[in-house]
Amino acid sequence: MKISSNFDSGNIEVISVENPENIQVKIRKDTNSNKHQWFYFRLTGAEGYPCKINIINASTAAYPYWENYQAVASYDKVTWFRVPTTYKDNKLVINHKPEFNSVFYAYFAPFTYEQHLKLISTAQHSDVCILESIGETVQGRDIDLLIAGNPTPEKLNIWIVARQHPGETMAEWFMQGLIARLFDEDDAVSRVLLDKATFYIVPNMNLDGSILGNQRFNSLGIDLNREWQKPSLEKSPEVFFVRKYMENTGVDLFLDIHGDEEIPYNFVSDMNGIPNFDERLKIIQEKFLNNWMQICPDFQREHGYPATPPGEANLNIATKYIGNTFKCLSLTIEQPFKDNNNLPDPVFGWSPERAIKFGASILNSILYIADDLR
Ligand code: ZN
């Protein structure tokens, strides 16, 4: 029996695999940081053995909200199903009898760099899309920006980014659904939207962190979502280049897609707390969120983060900085690592398929408020 993680987005350290009923592993820290959370590894040679994989440093993870959490597994890296997982004595224990000799386990269904490149190359075949490489990450990878809808001064500028936190892979699954629908020339909502707006889309803000198997940081241990007031070309070029491009286009709507380790619902972190938040923005925000809740039962507003007191938003966070600077609607969208408890799915939990549909659904609500955005 063997465990390995030496591949795109892999993360684990092996302590012992001698006894299938007491396999011991440890999550590696994010590069240049002291925090750990994301895991993704392959177990081979265990077909038919009831395995207990103990993640022995789960209690010191950055977000140790393991209650009701079930890890995902896959034989083919296409279908990711949940496997019985318990949290006891500071250890996260995955209990599974593999049906094949090669099985992958992960914190959530991975969205690898190869999948990212495929997403980009598929998108560029669309007649409505232009691909621009707007800069390089710390490790020299292209920062891909998809531009949809011919830019003209009259049109709205809508920016949507994802995976500032690379382990939040559901964010790029969300983008896959949103992009596929937006570029579908048979979709009436998308056609009207592209008449009204130019979309600027960054499906993965943190490519280095994604490949390295990080949860939160880029390759230098920087949290990109705390860099927006003063991004640095050396330490956070991913933010530096995107922000610079935004300053040229202007922004009428900004959405930043994330995942949340604790709360088993889809929710947003809204604009309350931003110094420039005013009555106009409040009306648009309410209209948008209430519409999304109506048309998509996977979205709700009851559960989420506590409200930020007026004026106290942290402007180093992307949506807070952009909303305040451009005085536009600007929201952080959070999806669960666990499941949506309003519509639970015991086999798959919150899954790539659901994130894809959730991402596609938001276009209706963007259209609903499009004429109010400027
Ligand atoms: Zn995040």
Account of the protein in words:
The chain is α+β, with helices and mostly antiparallel strands and 374 residues long. It has 2 domains: 105 residues, Immunoglobulin-like; 260 residues, Zn peptidases (Aminopeptidase, 3-Layer(aba) Sandwich). 26% of the residues lie in helices and 24% in strands. It has 8 helices and 17 strands. The strands form 3 sheets. A 7-stranded mixed sheet has the order 11-12-14-13-15-17-16, sandwiched between helices. Strands 1-4-10-6-7 form a 5-stranded antiparallel sheet, with no helix packed on it. Strand 2 and strand 3 form a beta hairpin. The radius of gyration is 20 Å and the shape is globular. Bound molecules: zinc ion. Zinc ion binds next to loops.
CATH fold name of the largest domain: Aminopeptidase
State the major sheet: 7 strands, mixed
Strand content: 15-25%
Q: What is the fourth-level CATH superfamily of the largest domain?
A: Zn peptidases
Q: What top-tier CATH class of the largest domain fits best? A: Alpha Beta
Structural class: alpha+beta
Strand order of the largest sheet: 11-12-14-13-15-17-16
- What string gives the helices and strands in order? EEEEEEEEEEHEEEHHEHHEEHHEH
Distance between the termini: 60 Å
Short characterization:
The chain has helices at residues 113-123, 170-182, 188-196, 207-212, 237-249, 279-295, 318-326, 352-369; strands at residues 2-4, 13-16, 23-26, 40-44, 51-55, 72-74, 81-82, 85-88, 91-96, 102-106, 129-136, 142-148, 156-162, 197-202, 253-260, 267-269, 329-336. With 374 residues, it is α+β, with helices and mostly antiparallel strands. The protein binds zinc ion.
